Amino acid sequence: MAQPVRVRRLTGQEGQKLQQIVRRDGTSSVRCRRAMMLLASAGGNRVPVIAQLVQADEDTVRDVIHRFNEGGLACVDPQWAGGRPRLLDPDDEDFVIQTATTRPAKLGQPFTRWSIRKLASYLRKVHGRIIRIGREALRCLLQRRGITFQRTKTWKESPDPERDAKLERIEHVLEHFPDRLFAFDEFGPLGIRLTAGSCWAKQGKPDRLPATYSRTHGVTYFHGCYSVSDDRLWGVNRRRKSTANTLAALKSIRAARPDGAPIYIILDNLSAHTGADIRRWAKKNKVELCSAPTYASWANPIEAHFGPLRQFTLANSHHCSHPAQTRALHAYLRWRSANARHPDVLAAQRKERARIRSEKGIRWGGRLLAAVA
Fold first, then answer.
1. 331 sits in which H/E element
2. Rounded to two decimals, what is the model's pTM?
3. By the 8 A CB rule, do 154 and 146 touch?
4. Closest by CA position to 5, among listed 49, 36, 35
5. What confidence tier does 21 reach under pLDDT thresholds 50, 70, 90?
6. Closest to 300 (Cα-Cα) out of 292, 308, 309, 312
7. Residue 269's closest CA among 172, 184, 142?
8. Going by C-beta distance under 8 Å and a sequence separation of 6 or more, which residues neighbour residue 116?
9. What long-range pairs does 112-119 form, CB within 8 A, spacing at least 24?
10. pLDDT at 362
11. Neighbour count for residue 324 (Cβ, 10 Å)
12. Burial class, 277, CB count within 10 angstroms (exposed 0-12 / middle 13-18 / buried 19+)
């Protein structure tokens, strides 16, 4: 039997980059959808579930996953083709890319970064190797080879000494106990303010929302719980993160499987998630807390489902109060449950509808026989 298609284990940088694209990248819907595919696959979701989540064909999802496994994050950006034939040989192109990605100070130039004009001028004057290339051709070459002009950023690699062990445990329970597996995390802070977004509108006539200057409502945090096998997301808004609020959410997860058999909950290692009260409760109620490594919250399956929650309830919104914002969140969660596209959930819904139709048919047949008699 063939193994299901799934992304390889993400590195810390890859997980953080995918999480950043899903949460904050509003410039390209293609990048966001592809990143959501990879993040959902890393969280243990199968290809049919991911295809329904991003509204794409299953073959497209498999192709993106295979491309990531072969080439990494380069698969997130669309590959455009066309244009004039190349005028530089591959060695010259490699030299241009090497020069563009080298700090100018190391090459004896008195500035900290290249511009297109400065780079093209320098390439014409390199001792022993003169490369004549126009600014537009140079810009296209850099774009084709994946070199873009961007801000310098910092990064964090997980310093957790148990990183591999924790990831292996999460992968194990995802593979062997999906029907007993849950995920928990906080989403926020959620403030009462105008949140920019997108909508369908007449060209040049976008919807306008009033700006806010006085923000005296404070913030809340959405404590989200996710059932991996049922594709069910639920939660509640709280004023702050605390051990008591976390314990209340974990108890709601335990209530979802009241049979007393062991369950597994994936969550990060925030101090509010690892208190003594929570550990005692987990031991007493047969709950195994599978902690994600430090700076690796992307390993939590719930992360991929926070993206749509943000897009369809917070983006392009102007809630007047926290209760109104909470009602909007819960309305979306109810809609999500009623319109579930997870294969297991759809099968259960079809089975329930068939049972109801069968019962109605029996009752109608009984009334009909009584009337005939």
1. helix 322-338
2. 0.52
3. no
4. 49
5. confident
6. 292
7. 184
8. 135, 138, 139
9. none
10. 44
11. 13
12. exposed
